[in-house]
What we know:
single chain
Amino acid sequence: MPVKCVTVECIPTLIQLRRPVHAVYCAAMQRFGLGVDEEMVKRAYTHGFKTTQMKYPSFGVGPDGALKYYKDWWRVSVFETLNAPGMPATGWSGDEFDLFFQHVFSEFGSVTTW
């Protein structure tokens, strides 16, 4: 079977973040009114990332085409992070989650993060 997709982890070998991923998430959560600290978010991010990677390996690009776009994969990962054990309930509607996700996603598209 020919290889159709190869993913490469390039952080922190080729690309560096100015702040750890969990710190970016934590700042966003605090901005949106969640009472969290960096250690709590670090554990939640690890849980969310691993859970999403198990559900949708290779960032959702698989033989079954589970997720069409990588942004969908990150949306699931952020959702799993927010709902990780030990995290406070957000009580957000779908629209409120979308606003939060867009904020976090745009942070990683910003030169201030890289």
